[in-house]
Amino acid sequence: MRSLTILGVILLAAGLFVILKPPSYSREESVLKLGDLEARVQQQRTVPGWVGGALLGAGCVLVVFGARKR
User: Reduced to 3 states, what is the DSSP secondary structure of residue 23?
Assistant: First the structure.
């Protein structure tokens, strides 16, 4: 019961972080390959906002269920 509440708070914090300051990651793709010659492109992408919303929702559910079991 206590672990659900703790996990819920962690998910809430992660969801707020993703919504307020979305983290970015880089992705490398091969766009052209001719024999031994290969061209690659590196793109910076951000985590979509719906991921933060999903984390917030899951965190709220866990906090409510963790508080109910007490």
Answer: coil
The total of other beta-carbon atoms located within 10 Å of residue 62's CB is 20
CA pair distance 60, 13, nearest whole angstrom: 11
Closest to 56 in 3D by CA, of 3, 1, 19: 19
Burial of 68 (C-beta count, 10 Å sphere; 0-12/13-18/19+): exposed
Confidence (pTM): 0.73
For helices 2-20 and 49-68, the axis angle rounded to 10 degrees is: 160
- Taking the C-alpha atoms of residue 45 and residue 68, their distance in angstroms, rounded to an integer, is 39
What is the spatial distance between Cα 66 and Cα 70, in angstroms, rounded to a whole number? 7
- pLDDT tens digits, one per residue of 8-63: 999 999 999 999 999 999 999 988 999 889 999 999 999 999 999 999 999 999 99
